[in-house]
Amino acid sequence: MAVSDPTLEVETGLHAKGHRYVIGCDEVGRGAIAGPVAVGLAVVDLACGPFPLGLRDSKLLSQKRREELAPLTAAWARHSSVGLASALEVDTLGLTAALGLAGKRALTRLHTGGAKIRESIILLDGAFDWLNPALSSSLPLLLQVKADRDCASVAAASVVAKVFRDRIMIDADATTPGYEWAGNKGYGSAGHFAAIAALGATAMHRHTWLKQQPEIDE
C-alpha cells in the first residue's frame, strides 16, 4: 500500500481556531537499548509556506535522505529543537518520565531561541500525553495517532530528532567501538546483543532494558 505524504491540514485547522503557532512533537529512540531518548520539536505558523519536498516520518526515509532533509526542515520551520534524556535517566526515571524530561528540555531550548511557547499548541504524535506531566504548567496539546505520518510539523520534528540522535550514536561508536552503534543506532540487533555478551554493557546502555530485550522500534 502506498504511503501518503504528510499535509498541513491539521496545523491549518489549529491556526484557524486561534493558535498562532503549532509545535509538532515526536520522539525517537523509544525502543533502543543504548543511547538517549530524543524529543524533536518543530514550530510552524501560516507564514512558513510549503514544507520541503519529500518530507515524511523519519522511519519512512533512508538515512541519506534524512540527512538531506534535516537542514531543509530546520530552515523551513519557524524554530526547531531537540531535547535528550540519557540512558541513565531512562533507567532511573522510567521511559515515560524520561520522554517528558527530554520534551521539557526541548521546549526550554525553543523558548531560549525566541519561540512564543505560550502562543502555541503542541501537536503530539500518539494517544498518550507524556509531555504535560513533566511541565510546571500544562500547555495546550492535541494528540493525534500517526501524526508523524500525516502532519508535516510532526514529520519535521521526527526528522530533526532522528538525525540529531543518530549522530550521537555514530560518534559514540567511534569512541566506544564494538557495539555496531553506527549501524544499529543503539537498537537491539543480533550483533548488538552479541557484543554486549562479549564486551559487557556500557554507560550508554539502558541496563534495566537489557533484561527485557524490548522490541526493535525506531
UniProtKB/TrEMBL annotation:
Manganese or magnesium. Binds 1 divalent metal ion per monomer in the absence of substrate. May bind a second metal ion after substrate binding. Pfam families: RNase_HII (PF01351). Keywords: Cytoplasm, Endonuclease, Hydrolase, Manganese, Metal-binding, Nuclease. It is found in: Cytoplasm. Its cofactor is Mn(2+); Mg(2+). GO terms for cellular component: cytoplasm; ribonuclease H2 complex. GO terms for biological process: DNA replication, removal of RNA primer; mismatch repair. InterPro entries: RNase_HII, RNase_HII/HIII, RNase_HII/HIII_dom, RNaseH-like_sf, RNaseH_sf. Its EC number is 3.1.26.4. GO terms for molecular function: metal ion binding; RNA binding; RNA-DNA hybrid ribonuclease activity. Residues 20-218 form the RNase H type-2 domain. The keyword Hydrolase applies. A divalent metal cation binds at D26, E27, D125. The keyword RNA-binding does not apply. It catalyses: Endonucleolytic cleavage to 5'-phosphomonoester. Belongs to the RNase HII family. Endonuclease that specifically degrades the RNA of RNA-DNA hybrids. This is Ribonuclease.
